[in-house]
Amino acid sequence: MHQQPNNTSNFIFSRLPFLFFLKLAFSPKIFFPIFAYFIFSSAFFCMLDYYFIIFFTISSALPV
Q1: Residues 24/31, Cβ–Cβ less than 8 Å
Q2: Distance CA 60, CA 24 (A)
Q3: Are 13 and 19 in contact (CB under 8 A)?
Q4: H helices of the chain, where?
Q5: What per-residue confidence (pLDDT) applies to 64?
Q6: Exposed, middle or buried by CB within 10 Å (0-12, 13-18, 19+), for 20?
Q7: pLDDT, tens digit, 9 for 90 and up, residues 33-57
Q8: For 49, which DSSP code?
Q9: Are 21 and 35 in contact (CB under 8 A)?
Q10: What is the CB-side half-sphere exposure of residue 61 using CA atoms within 13 A?
Q11: Number of C-beta neighbours around residue 24 at 10 A
Q12: Shortest CA distance to 54 belongs to which of 41, 42, 35?
């Protein structure tokens, strides 16, 4: 097996914006869908990203 040398640095730097957005997402209640979208789009795969785009467009279009 071939190991990449920058594997740990990518792991750390990819988790730093995740924790930063997670901290900001729970402080203001208004920006929660925006930060939650960035968290979910960075945490899941690109195929699941289309489902979140469809979900947020449908949920924002529905009169609540």
Answers
A1: yes
A2: 21
A3: no
A4: 7-26, 32-43, 46-61
A5: 53
A6: exposed
A7: 777 777 777 666 555 666 777 777 7
A8: H
A9: yes
A10: 6
A11: 14
A12: 41
